Amino acid sequence: MSTRNLTMVVNRADAQHNHLGFACKPTLLSDKSYVNMYLHHDGYPEWQGVQLANWVKHMQQDQGFTNFGDASRIASHLVKDFHYNSQYLYPSVDCIDHHYTYILWTGKPDVWISCYDNYKSENVFVLPIEKVIEKYNNEMDYTDWNFYRLNTN
Length: 153
What we know:
The protein is of the alpha+beta class.
């Protein structure tokens, strides 16, 4: 079964315009996202949430993206690193049916991720990357981003 998901990259300053902040409904930020990356498989928090958090951690610790300030740069690396044959880019978060929407909040070194369940119309989590890993890590065979980079560059 496929757990479809979409990842957005949004500058955290754009959350200030909503009373729910990082927990706001992703469709309210559709025009603020630098990318709407759809992945067809494994979108549940125990996989994709941890994958995203591990990727941010890798980019900061190993690739020198310490401030995560430029959302357009982050979006381009995200698309490259998560590419596989069932990845698509959409002009809007509303263009395709998917279960979970993740938002990477850029603009400061302490990157946060939010996860929204579109089927229940509720926020699943809003957490800094360390807490996503701590809460949802199930010791699955997550991507080793250092090995991945070494073999794809």
